[in-house]
Amino acid sequence: MSLLSNLLKCKSPQELIDEGANSGLKKTLNVFDLIVIGIGAVVGTGIFTIIGSAIVGSTDGAGAGTAVIVSMTLAAIASVFSALSYSEIAAMIPVAGSAYTYTYATMGEFMAWMVGWILMLEYAIGNITVASAWTGYFVQFLKGFKHILPAFVVNCPLWLRNDYRTMYELCNRYGWDVHDKMPFVHLPLGIEIPFAVNVPAIAIVLILTVLLIKGVKESTKVATIMVGVNMFIILSFIVVGAFYVKPEHWVPFAPNGMEGIFTGAFVIFFAYVGFDAISTAAEETNNPQRDLPVAIMGTLVLCTVLYILVALVLTGVVPLNAIDTQAPLAHAMRFIGNNWYAGLISVGALCALTTVLLIYQLGTTRILFAMSRDNFLPKSLNKVHDKFQTPHILTWISGLIVIICALFMDLNISAELCNFGTFTSFIIICIAVLILRKTEPNRERPFKVPCCPWFPIFGVVTCLALMYCKFSAKATSALYFVIWLLIGVAIYALYSYKAKRKEESTSD
Predict the structure, then answer these.
(1) Domain-embedded: residue 333
(2) pTM of the model
(3) CATH label of the domain that carries residue 354
(4) Most exposed residue of 220, 311, 373, 457, measured as fewest CB within 10 angstroms of its CB?
(5) Measured between alpha carbons, how far is 401 from 227 in angstroms, rounded to an integer?
(6) Which residues partner with 193 through β-bridges?
(7) CB atoms closer than 10 angstroms to residue 340
(8) 48-69 pLDDT, tens per residue?
(9) Statement: residue 156 has pLDDT above 70
(10) Three-class DSSP labels, 98-123
(11) Is 490:115 a contact under the CB 8 Å cutoff?
(12) What is the distance of C-alpha 458 from the center of its chain?
């Protein structure tokens, strides 16, 4: 088989469906479970980790101010077009792997590999961002029990709750001596290696990895409880905060003009990452043709409404120059004197971020599962646990990837890399819908994208526009994204070479 044939080799939708039917994964999820997965993956990241940066801005771009609600609307529009496309294909090809699998059915082996590689940015790298944020809220939570817990627990050293990059940044910011704040491992030839490890982040990832191995239904039950707590706290924040809103804080509405709005849209898009995780659980859903589209669209609409309401209350309560980018909601309650409620928000944040970690881990594992089934990963990894009927080996691998990367990755850069990965996968899905309409016109579609081809085209255009804004700003994350793509191409080239050599040896 020629190189070009390999690159363009596709799997038919029916072939993918037949493979999924024999995967061994247990079908236990209903539409309520899927909505929980969607809300759990989406709500926490935006409200508790990203919204402050989108409003205020960062060293990598201007903030949107109160006009963040416009940024949210733009990000939601881009997401809606993509969500409609996801809904059509997920109902049509209800198998694990999400965008990776759909690409294999439309654009061939090479593009499928690249999309799978890019999806690692969305799920695995995104999980790093969330895990780091989880540590921050966990530390704040412990401080609420400083009169009960031992001092060494409440005030544990900074190097035990931050990665070494963050530790260096803190030392530079406050003028601390690095050797006073971090232990160093002394090697021969006078080499010193700094040591810092985010223990809480590692611990929560390990706990959730074990939970996912126990079963997706069990994991969903835990997520349901946490989503319930999270929703109660967010809704109460909106109600309580509304009484303290000062309309003058909304002026100027867009302090940085359109630049701030578009930059804010790119940043806040991370808040919408996650609804596509619903499609990764397709093989474990009882009625995927009916339930997947309902869950995907329902999640997106609900989360958009919540985001806008929270943003209006937050910017109305706290002046723009006083918003805390690390814990914006908790700080807002402290700003108006509700210290007890600030502590309650920390509990909500922990529940929300724990759920996000759980869902992202689920998504990562199912994508790796699909890639292993297609021989992009060793077949030995594609094993399902005899008792729990979960891909336990790949679950451990995905957990270890997050743990290792969390030791080195910068929080802001990892969030933006996640966005690049998400935008790319959304673009691919919109294009895949158009291709399947041509190649599989007669295949049953339980859900159809309305106004096709215009809605998928609008999805491609909006995602490309938001990506262009970040590339034009020459952001560090844009360079890292290009490097990531090049590494993916190199790995595929090596894989293809080995596969060709194996094929030649077999024919001989």
Answers:
(1) yes
(2) 0.74
(3) 1.20.1740.10
(4) 457
(5) 26
(6) 185
(7) 9
(8) 767 877 888 765 567 788 888 8
(9) yes
(10) CHHHHHHCCCCHHHHHHHHHHHHHHH
(11) no
(12) 23
